[in-house]
Write a structure and sequence with these properties.
Blueprint (H helix, E strand, L loop, with lengths): L1 E5 L3 E5 L7 E5 L5 E3 L2 H4 L9 E6 L5 E5 H13 L5 H11 L3 E4 L5 E3 L2 H6 L5 E7 L2 E5 L1 H22 L2
Length: 161
Amino acid sequence: MVETGLSGLFSQRVQMAQFLGEHDVPVDDKGRIFVPAEFRKKLPPEANDTMVVVRGFDHCLTAYPQHTWEKTAQKLLRLPQTERKVRGLIRAMLSQAAEIKLDRQGRASIPRKLLQQADIGDQMVVIGALDKLEFWNPRDWKKFLDEADPVMEEVAESLEL
């Protein structure tokens, strides 16, 4: 549960799927993966077993459940598109984006161009990142984790976590 407030006057409890954890997942020669059952169970009905996969940050792919993507797309639409850096972000993030639908067995096909963008071959690491999933090349994920500890501690201190 997450509490949201409106100027501190009202508080509303909102149910948010929280994707947590890390899974090693094989990728077949057609770009198909099995989305781990633990993550599939967290997809709410409004996601319609559909995710939008975009070029993410830190050399990974980001997979948004359909309903979460709609909120993210609205945020992108509100950005000042007259600014070059905003146009660049939108182009880089969305030019190869794909909507993927999970079948009954939890399989999904990710376009080869997207997999190549994140240098993902026959294996990937799928991590939960609260309201979305991230797909990583295992080598890049290990490198990220190796470098994350000092940054994580510094940010946690500044946020008083």
